[in-house]
Amino acid sequence: MSQRMQQGQPMIVMSEDSQRVKDKDAQDYNISAARAVAEAVRSTLGPKGMDKMLVDSMGSVTITNDGVTILQEMDIDNPTAEMIIEVAETQEDEAGDGTTTAVAIAGELLKNAEDLLEQDIHPTAIIKGFHMASEQAREEIDDIASDIDTDDEELIRKTAETSMTGKGTEVNKEHLAQLIVDAVGQVTVEDADGNNVVDLEYLNIETQTGRAVGESDLLVGGIVDKDPVHDNMPTEAEDADILLLNEAIEVEETDVDTEVSVTDPDQLQKFLDREEKQLRDKVDTIADLDADVVFCQKGIDDLAQHYLAKEGILAVRRAKKSDLEFLSEVVGASIVSDLESATEDDLGFGDVTRDDEDELFYVEGDDAHGVTLLLRGSTEHVVDELERGVNDALDVVAQTVSDGRVLAGGGAIEVELASRLRDYADSVSGREQLAVEAFADSLELVPRVLAENAGLDSIDTLVDLRAAHDDGEVQAGLNVFSGDVENTFDAGVVEPAHAKEQAVTSASEAANLVLKIDDIISAGDLSTDKGEEQEGGAPGGMGGMGGGMGGMM
Ligand SMILES: Nc1ncnc2c1ncn2[C@@H]1O[C@H](COP(=O)(O)OP(=O)(O)OP(=O)(O)O)[C@@H](O)[C@H]1O
Ligand SMILES: [Mg+2]
Question: Where is this region: Disordered (predicted)?
């Protein structure tokens, strides 16, 4: 090898198809990709944010305002952009709401970092400054947050309403907020130290199309959207023993294809008798267990249906797996996968009632608990967006009930944080100081975009907000409906502190991850869509932002 080097020949260590982008180019490439993603969701932020319509390759349509859903549905084909999408996903997992905010802040951090890089500030100084600012911001959030009484239902309802403003949930937000607060209340228990613990496992969301959103309801127990398998069965059962079965009540089929040849009619009869007996035995087993109701995930043979009806047992077939799992919590039953070995202990206990109008069963448990939020809307798209909005609000309420720390929204918290971080920057020496200041500026993106999306002048708004905060009005935010700067907390725009902490942290970590890269080495073109046919060879790859992006910006 040394011989070849001496001869002055370049040594090839990478395959011909691979691509490499270095130093400044790598930073530019990464920063623009990340900013493109942030830009794509910005217009959806806040009560006056718009929605996006996403059409996937199969032609199915999603209409949404939810940051994480937009990014997941967009056909993004770029490694850096995918890192930013992870910010939204982490925010969704950890906090449930604030995904647009987190991504928008990450984009703004990188935009401001780009300016610092232009001034020849080394990326490591920026990274360190961002990290310091983010740690400080967390402390400040904790300091600014108000501790509320977790029994203060009105305030908690406001957090739900704030989270739902500007989504498909908007028009019925009072009604839905009340349902959400009640639902969370039903699944909250106090632990030994007197802290609230919310277990959303006990809460199930069911959706139904064809009715108004205002008719959504909270039901104690679970729902099974099915009919009884036989007309002669009871449709209701009080104080019922309930069997949840994950095995078919059918004749057992052999694994291999078999052919039975019969030589006289008796033999055929015997064969049929055998099958009949098998079904009879299964139904007898169920009857011996004293089950009054059977929710079966698999099929039920016609003959077995008849036997079950004769025994006066209410049976439902092809119930959803997720319904069965939730019912097991509601009635305290185990899901039986082998009827032979089932015992009475596996059965649950509760009431089953029939709603003839909606053609579904309500199942209520006696000892175990569980509630179902039944969301209604006119069409599938309405219900889907409703479900996403309600899910965000559920997480927000759950956090508020268990954590108890809330903040003023409408940009109030961001402007206050920015002002405090600027003070903090004075105590930071070296170039990191500039990065801390850039971090403060980045947080102010939130009120700017809220104003922009509401058709207000973002500079004027920011000037007014800063002035109010300089006067010590910690909760001064933007009322997007009137365009005024006011105490948003008193106006009922309230957000959980935990979600904001998470948004600031994950935005800063993602920005730092991107800034640390000075070399991109890719085995093929710079695309993450390895499944698809790659056209045109390497150079085209740098475009990188899959087809869907173009129209977005
Ligand atoms: N009535 C209001 N007036 C002013 N600002 C509001 C009002 N209601 C909500 N906001 C603000 O809107 C922002 C939240 O907007 P949005 O719900 O669109 O984005 P997100 O929560 O960051 O992301 P996503 O909900 O998509 O996960 C917060 O900053 C919140 O304070
Ligand atoms: Mg939100």
Answer: 525-553
Helix axes 458-470, 445-453, angle to 10 degrees: 130
What pLDDT is attached to residue 7? Answer: 66
**Cα→Cα distances 234→189, 209, 222, 313, 490, Å:** 36, 27, 19, 7, 54
Strand duo 293-296 + 314-316: pairing: parallel
235 flagged as catalytic: no
pTM (predicted TM-score) = 0.82
Ligand 1 lined by 165 (C-beta under 6 Å): yes
pLDDT (tens digit, 9 = 90+) per residue, 55-97? 888 888 888 998 899 988 888 888 888 889 999 999 999 998 9
Alpha helix ranges (H) inside 65-194: 67-73, 79-94, 99-118, 123-144, 153-164, 173-186
How do residues 266-301 score in pLDDT, each as one tens digit?
A: 888 888 888 889 899 999 999 999 999 999 999 999
For ligand 1, what atom is nearest to the CA of residue 409?
31
Among 241, 346, 392, 395, the one annotated catalytic: 392
Is residue 100 part of the annotated active site? The answer reads yes
Distance (Å) from CA 97 to ligand 2 centroid = 5
Residue 7 alpha carbon to ligand 1 centre in Å = 64
Alpha carbon separation from 132 to 86, 109, 392, 494 (Å, rounded):
22, 14, 30, 27
Q: Which of 64, 69, 99, 159 is catalytic?
A: 99
Domains belonging to the chain, first-starting first, are: 18-47+76-145+406-516 (1.10.560.10), 153-218+372-402 (3.30.260.10), 221-253+263-368 (3.50.7.10)
Minimum CA distance residue for ligand 1 atom 21: 98
